[in-house]
Design brief:
With 801 residues, this protein is mainly α. The protein is built from 31 helices and nine strands. Strands 5-3-7 form a three-stranded mixed β-sheet. The protein has a two-stranded antiparallel sheet with strand order 1-9. Strands 2-8 form a two-stranded antiparallel sheet. The longest helix has 32 residues, at 484-515. Mean pLDDT is 80; it is low at 1-17, 60-64 and 754-801.
Length: 801
Amino acid sequence: MPPDSGVTDKSFITPLTKAGNRFLETLEDRFFGGRKEKRNRFILLLLTTFLLTLLILPSRHFMSVSYKAGEVATSDIRATQDYLLEDRPLTEKKRVEAEAAAPFVYTFNANAALEMTSRFEKALALARNVATSGQTGNRQALQDSLTRILGVEVTPVDLEALLRIRSDRVLLSDLRRLAVRLFSQKIVADKTGFAADRQHGILLIDAETKQVIAAGDFSRYVDLTEARSQLADMKIGGGNPRDLQVVEELLSRAIRPNLVLDREATDAKKRETRDAVRPVLYQIKRGEMVVRVGERITPEQALKLESIFAARSGINRLFMGIGILGLTLVLFYFPYRFALKNIRKFHPSNKDLVFLALLTLCNFLILKTALVISSAMGSPFPSVDTANYYYIFPFAAAAMLVRIIINSEVALVYCAICAPLLGIMFNNSLQVVIYALLGGVVGAHGVRQCKDRSTIMTAGMKVSVVNFALALSFQIFNDSLYTMQTVYCVLFAAAGGIVNAIFLTGTIPLIENLFYYTTDIRLLEKANFDSPVLRELMVNAPGTYHHSVLVGNLVEAAAEAINANPLLARVAAYYHDIGKSSKPFYFIENVGQMDNRHDRLAPSMSALILISHVKEGVELAREHRLGQPIVDIIRQSHGTGLITYFYQKAKNLAAQEGKTVDEQEFRYPGPKPQTREAGLVLLADHVEAASRTLADPTPSRIQGMVQKIINNIFIDGQLDECELTLKNLHEIAKSFNRILVGIYHQRIDYPEPAYKEKEKGNGGKKHLESGDHEPAKAPSDRREEDKKNGGEDLKRLGISR
């Protein structure tokens, strides 16, 4: 990176810039080059609109406003089609009622008597086997085994009784009889709870088959306390009464309910009953008024609006996206075509289109992120409405950036395209459309010919004033002037302009380096005479350097006279002849008292050397990254002009040999000037070089010379492709005359200094002196000298071209 690039952190910016330049060059060559340029532009349009649609696509109801109960409607809302909507509160009510009416599920164990008898048979058989074998040493293990079999804790007393029982056949018979009698009735855990459930409704399921069985007669049911009391009245025979009493106590503890509430099945039944209730629907006819403007939204109306939004979700969101995509395509394509055909300065290049596409996507991404964050997080201050924060968003920054990078015409069209899309993204807000459009226009106008950072801040202040006025007008329109929200709105709106300026200040250097753009701010950096290119020109070709500085003064004044860009014209003039630094002594302004090297060359070779300085200047400008506008003016600064001196010399030599000369070999390759600034540099270059040949540069002679050169260039067609009018040429001539008259003003004759008289008295010895101290020559002397050197002056005019 050259030292005059104006970038402090070169280690970071240089790789980024080179990568950006390579990307843009590759994109222009491969994507936009050749016959496929139109097709690829259309692809860029489709890609940009598709990505932009994804950013704009709102998460809420499209083309409608979402209200909450208690809010005031700001517009009439009608149903756009027939809706069959669910009455969710009523549906939920019916489902709750059905769930509450669902029966309780009880499982009935019909084999409870058999299971109890089987457990006791296993327990008595184990005790009998242990007693018979005499292996009663490990009583704790036997006690644990009996506990697992019977399902109740067996104490040591119980264990001794079971071991002593021998005649268990009668005992088992009585146990079967008691179990059958006991479980012939329904036993529940809690009689009171079962009574309440029975009153509500119960569903009986077989514990083994899980099938619903007939409910039967539930009038006869007992709880565990009553069942144990009944068992106490029954007697068991077949053993020692004491041991039988222990068995009866074990039997009493082993009784379990045969009718048990199944909570999982009950919950499943409630869910099944709830899900079986069908939604309650109501119909809204197309055109039916849902809410009128000014009405306070009732819960029922809020429910309808919410139901309409829910009904339009899903597939309707796809249609919404297609609609936004189509709208974006229309807004992009037709204004672009109109501006291209009707706005004179609207001709964005391929690189400009890529820049505009990326800028638009980044701008909408930043604003959408700010919108989502402000909506999701809400206001950090409860008294401030979330929508008031929109006023501080940088809506105008993108348009201001387009104006600085490209021009005002493109910035105006950009504002007109993006403002409606921003309004759609911000919940179809017309206020956002107006706010973004006017803020962008005022901001773009404020940064015209931006030559320093303070201009950006001034433009930001202008945007703040417009934002303030718009915010105040919106509050008056909404009849909210005398509220605290008005204070917050106008404060945020005033701060919004400063936010735009800060955002723009930090973005411009990145855009300049990434996209290889040359702004007025960078032009000011390039205008520094300490830049390496100008320093090299000053050292190697001082005459060309002085000539370029004078041309810069001429074009700056002329550009101001015709409302062109004075800064671009002046800086381009400084660099338009930098290609001469490689072969400075082939250009007469750098020769001085040395021999003219062209005297030893053929005219065609001399012309080739003169022409080559344009190509070398372009290469040098690109090497030092002077910017595309300066590169273009270097190429166009000589147009396709004829190198007259060497052309005439070649014609004379060819005539002696009976040959002809191709005029095109003695013309610069061009192109002709495409902009007013390039045309000014071409005119000033010729005029400044020709002014050196004037014998007596009086105002009238300067005026005649300027008019003659401009007429010749105009007649040669060098100004056909730029935007200079005849009125502009008249203003340019007046400006050139004024500057040249100031340069070649008449000087008075100074009396001879006293020290010179002393020198004459000392032998007449004379020292070398600067021209400023020499007495001015008389006009007659000048004319004689000019006649003598007139041919040499014409030669300089030809060669300097």
